[in-house]
Design brief:
Blueprint (H helix, E strand, L loop, with lengths): L21 E8 L7 E8 L2 E5 L9 E4 L3 E7 L10 E7 L3 E6 L2 H16 L10 H19 L11 H10 L6 E5 L7 E9 L2 E12 L2 E4 L5 E3 L2 H10 L20 E4 L6 E4 L17 H7 L16 E2 L25 E2 L6 H25 L1
Antiparallel strand pairs: 1-2, 1-7, 2-3, 3-4, 5-6, 6-7, 8-9, 9-10, 10-11, 11-12, 13-14, 15-16
Organism: Sciurus carolinensis
InterPro entries: PH-like_dom_sf, PH_domain, SH2, SH2_dom_sf, STAP1/STAP2, STAP2_SH2
Keywords: Phosphoprotein, SH2 domain
Length: 370
């Protein structure tokens, strides 16, 4: 009996090889690593991606260079027995150490990193003319990429909001770009520094003229993009000004990996806070904690007295709306009515008695007139 033919196996679709400005092997040791770990690394934009090998398409880790501070050469880790060449990448929130196989590889990595961070080809490194040409090409690509996007320190806030952000989060930077206050297509730059314990806030205007951004200072400077504007302020202040970048490395929504009930595949789940797990433990809030969350109770209404709680009828006169619990103005012959205080039972009972008494007196007066 002939066996049933199995369907032909289709070849798995191949991933697209990532494109990098520069790539090669790097040994990396982060703040939490006990030893170096070897990766295939690639630089693209302001990010270094780390892969298991040069055949992988999905990166395992990445390093954001937007908080770049400096690059330093490091002595061999572990003494002269370590033949590797070391250098250190200092970011605003961490320091990452790297090890490469040769001095040329170290200078190449440092050169490409400085090119994309500072938007200029470095001139202080030991590089060959061919290396400098490669970095000049990367510089052109990076400038074109940044001209199509806003820098991370650009926020749609007002002048006051910019000042408050720089004051509240000084660890995130002291330079911020925002829309111009005159409603035109330009932008403004707000900076905040401290001089002898006193905050110094400055605002600078940047005009958008055609395809250029002109920094309106004593000697106007033209830039090709907003990112070049940021780089101007950073480089011309000896890096005293740091672009503002809020820390967004931490997730705000709890998530976990779970198996799909229909096909069994792993999916990413994000439970809703309004839909708690019915099988999970339920904790009842204590009386003290729940009481602390209650708003303060309003003051109890004051009990009415015989000589109080009178008000002149307002009618349609808006000017009379300010007269509350005051003496009746002279010359006003309008009848007085009782004011209900706070809707208390005493006030309701008092108002009912007064109404009945007035009705009885009115009936007696009409009977005498007839």
């Amino acid at each position: 009996m002939a066996s049933a033919l199995s369907p032909p196996r289709l070849p798995k679709p191949k991933g697209i090889q990532p494109s990098h400005y520069y790539e090669g092997f790097l040994e990396k040791r982060g703040p939490r690593d006990q030893d170096y770990r070897k990766f295939w690394a690639g630089l693209q934009g302001l990010t270094i991606y780390f892969y298991s090998s040069n055949r992988d398409f999905q990166h395992l880790e990445k390093l954001d260079l937007r908080t770049f501070v400096k690059l330093t050469d490091e002595a061999p880790w572990g003494g002269s027995r370590d033949p590797g060449i070391h250098f250190s990448l200092v970011l605003r929130d961490q320091e990452v150490k790297f090890k490469v196989e040769s001095l040329e590889s170290r200078e190449m990595w440092k050169g490409f990193i400085l090119t994309v961070v500072e938007l200029r080809v470095p001139s202080t490194l030991t590089l060959l003319p061919g290396h400098l040409y490669m970095m000049a090409e990367v510089l052109t690509k990076e400038e074109a990429r940044r001209s199509l996007e806003l820098p991370p320190c650009f926020l749609k806030v007002s002048r006051l909001e910019a000042q408050l952000l720089l004051e509240r989060y000084p660890e995130c930077g002291n330079l911020l770009l925002r829309p111009s206050g005159d409603g035109k297509d330009g932008v403004s730059v707000t900076t905040r520094q401290t001089l002898s314990g006193t905050p110094v806030v400055r605002h600078y205007k940047v005009k958008h003229e055609g395809a250029k951004y002109v920094i309106d200072v004593e000697d106007p400077f033209s830039c090709s993009s907003l990112d070049a504007v940021v780089n101007y302020f950073v480089s011309h202040t000896n890096k005293a000004l740091v672009p503002f970048l809020l820390d967004d490395d931490y997730e705000k929504v709890l998530g976990y990996v779970d198996a799909d009930k229909e096909n069994g595949e792993s999916v990413w789940m994000a439970p809703s806070a309004s839909d708690p797990d019915p099988d999970g433990p339920k904790s009842l809030p204590s009386a003290a904690s729940s009481q602390d969350k209650l708003p303060p109770l309003p003051p109890l209404p004051r009990l009415p007295s015989q000589d109080d709680n009178y008000v002149t009828p307002i009618g349609d006169d808006p000017a009379a709306a300010d007269y509350v619990n005051q003496d009746e103005p002279k010359g006003n012959n309008k009848p007085l009515v009782r004011k209900l205080v706070g809707g208390s039972p005493q006030a309701v009972l008092l108002a009912t008695n007064v109404t009945a008494e007035l009705a009885e007196k009115l009936q007696k007066r009409r009977a005498l007139e007839q």
